[in-house]
Amino acid sequence: MSGPLEKQLNVFLRRKRGDLTYEQFSRKIGLRASSLHRLELCQQSITLRSLQQILKRLKCRLSDVFPPAEF
């Protein structure tokens, strides 16, 4: 079962991948294509190290993936 953070990561990855294949985008972010696919389906959790790597390679900030919640 996935939570709201996994879903936010899912949306972010799909948007950033655009028209690239899983293979192309996985090389860009430094993950295996199978891991990327599972992340996009909310079937796999991500480590902080992997998330940090993705953010660095995409030149993004954590707030780009997880915008501040409004209460």
Explained architecture:
The structure is a single chain. 63% of the residues lie in helices and 0% in strands. It has 71 residues and is mainly α. The termini are far apart.
In a few lines, what is going on in this structure?
It is built from five helices and no strands. With 71 residues, it is mainly alpha-helical.
Task: Give the arrangement of secondary structure elements.
Blueprint: H1 4-17, H2 22-29, H3 33-40, H4 48-58, H5 62-65
Helix pairs in contact: 2-3
In the CATH scheme, the class would be Mainly Alpha
CATH topology label: 434 Repressor (Amino-terminal Domain)
The CA-CA distance between the termini, in Å, is 24 Å
CATH architecture: Orthogonal Bundle
Portion of residues in beta strands equals under 5%
Work out the radius of gyration.
Answer: 12 Å
The biggest beta sheet reads: none
**What does the overall shape look like?**
globular
Number of strands: 0
Q: Kindly state the mean pLDDT as a whole number? A: 91
**Proportion in helices:** 55-70%
